[in-house]
User: Fold these one by one.
Assistant:
Number 1:
Amino acid sequence: MQAPLNFAVDNRLPEMLERLTQLLPPKRQEPATNPLDQLLYGVVSQGLSSSGATACYKRIRQRYPSFVSMRDADPEVLRTLLVGVPAAALKAAALPEILRLVEETSGVLSLDALRRLDTEMALRFLTKLPRVNDDIAISVLRFTGAERVVMQVDRDVARPMRRLGLSEPAAPLSALPRQLIERAPVSWRSSDFAELSRGLGTVAGRWCHQARPDCAHCPLASLCPTAERAPKPAKVLSFPFGARGSASSRQGAA
């Protein structure tokens, strides 16, 4: 007889999400992002800080305000807009090529067709594009308008995830989103995973440091199997003959 499927749901996750939600400031309502912009921005942002990537992509969009103009852009001209960017030449060549491949596949310069694909097929399509890795692909799916169970995990988010036991100890970074989704309640939606990811990122930055985690102040410490527990204060035993006893002894000796 076939063994029943066993999805090891981690019952700590709802409590973790509740604590993290209370910790986080309300998320501002942001204007809708075109998934194609998110895709190209993700390629540009590799190896850059968030502020640096945003400034760089704004320069590109000012020079090429339409996707058609960027599709037809000369990579050498694009490269001049990527000064100081890691792998600038490769990224400059990748941006027009990505747009050409998207248009060849769907017939238009749009990722709307991804809405008709399941998550696995959509990720497979995106990660075949030049310089698009799993993290970029997952971030793009969040903007496709379909309700997908996806979670973005970078190295900072991975640190508390591993310490909390939400993934296998030796699992590669690319496997962590799937492993966490498998442990989550079936009722969770993409918004729950997004909040969990945002909260774990905050925990990583404030308390779950790489070298010396501040477990004493971490809001998830009581749920963490690897948290350093504060030692209980040792019971102090008084010496039976204190100062007064010593004085009495001296008087007796006199």
Number 2:
Amino acid sequence: MIIGYVRVSTQDQNLDSQIRAIEEYALRQKGELKIFEEKASGTRVNRSELSKALDPSVLREGDTFIVYRLDRLARSVKQLHEIAELLDERKVNFVSLQDNIDTKTATGKAMFGMIAVFAEFERNLIAERTKAGLESAKVQGKLGGRPALKKSTKERVRQLYSRGVSASELAKEYNIGRSTVYKILNEEKGG
């Protein structure tokens, strides 16, 4: 079985060219085809048609999962790698028509292997940059977070609360969390 997945990111775009290319591939392979069509942004977390296409009851060992182009499938190397691992675990062939990837071939497998390497590289770079940024901020004396509230603001919060203004209203008024309001109120009690 050949499982196709097509996606456009706006309602104005058309799926026809992607569908036609996948249908032509299925004809050449003489395979039965089922296509899942998604009209949604790739950044949207819940892509229901992709979830359906990847469902184990639909996509089984020996099947081929096909997309028109890699960017129709995933928005990041990490996301693409996760899908690639899933397909590999299930022993499903993967084809991306425009990117000339077919995991039935040695070259296709190598390309997908490189994707895994770059996904790990990307994760490591992000971790290094985050660590370096935090260390740099620490050296410069920057602690992060919101600035501390002035003593006069804390006193005003206590005053208004004692007059019956709710913690939620105070939080909204001073742009702080309700938990911060309660923390201010507890400071007064010495605890």
